[in-house]
Structure formats: C-alpha cells, structure tokens
Amino acid sequence: MKKEYDKAGVELRGCRKTKAILPDISDATDEDWSTEYLDLILSVRIVPSADEAINHINTYGSAHSDCIVTD
Predict the structure, then answer these.
(1) What is the pTM of this model?
(2) Which end of the chain has fewer CB atoms at under 10 Å, N or C?
(3) pLDDT above 80 (res 64)
(4) In the chain, pLDDT over 70 holds for what percent of residues?
C-alpha cells in the first residue's frame, strides 16, 4: 500500500511500530490521532488487538473515516 499511497501523493504518519516497518514516514503525534486532515494524510497506528483498535477509534475517531485492518 505504501507504494500506491506514494504514487497518489498521500503523506503517511505513523506510531513507533509503524515506523519500524516504514522508517521513511513522518512521526505521528498525539494530535494526529484526533485530527480530521481534509487532505491526503493518513495516520497509521499498530496495536496488539482488535479490542485496542476499537478503543483507539472510540477515543480518537471521527465516526466517518476510521478503519481497522487485520489478518
């Protein structure tokens, strides 16, 4: 997905775990988690469980552009 986001001009911001996988992206700040950018910016946070992902969205989410990706 990173290659596709780069082609589309999307800026990625990530937590420490995300940056361990994608070291060339920007650091995400606490403010990023609750910011509705209205731009091509995506904040990515890796969490250990679906419950923690749901809690993160319930705490910071916009109720319209949040997503959980899992395998």
Answers:
(1) 0.87
(2) C
(3) no
(4) 100
